[in-house]
Amino acid sequence: MGSQKSFKKKGTIKQILKDHFHGFWEMHAEALPESVRKSIEETVLKAIKCGSRDLGYALYECKGCAEGDPEPVYVCFTCKSRFCHGCGKKYTERRLVDDHPQRNYL
């Protein structure tokens, strides 16, 4: 695949998760109830992969352009998890708008 372009900003929280989650998980997973371990691990790993090609992507190409050789644009899918810093923020904002469409907050 060509150059990997991503227009989504790489956040600090995601980088902290990438750098430290596996070590944390090895040390502390046993302390968590067994019934939720798999769910927690899947959710965090999904948030780490959010906005990357690992979760899939849509590829847009201009087949009708006669000029030059336009580069394809990859739009990476998001995890849509409330745990994820980016997706969770969108979820919260949407919920506030849906619950209180005309209310002003001071």
UniProtKB/TrEMBL annotation:
InterPro entries: Zn_Tnp
Pfam family, one: Zn_Tnp_IS91
Transposase zinc-binding domain boundaries: 20-96
Protein name in the entry: Transposase zinc-binding domain-containing protein
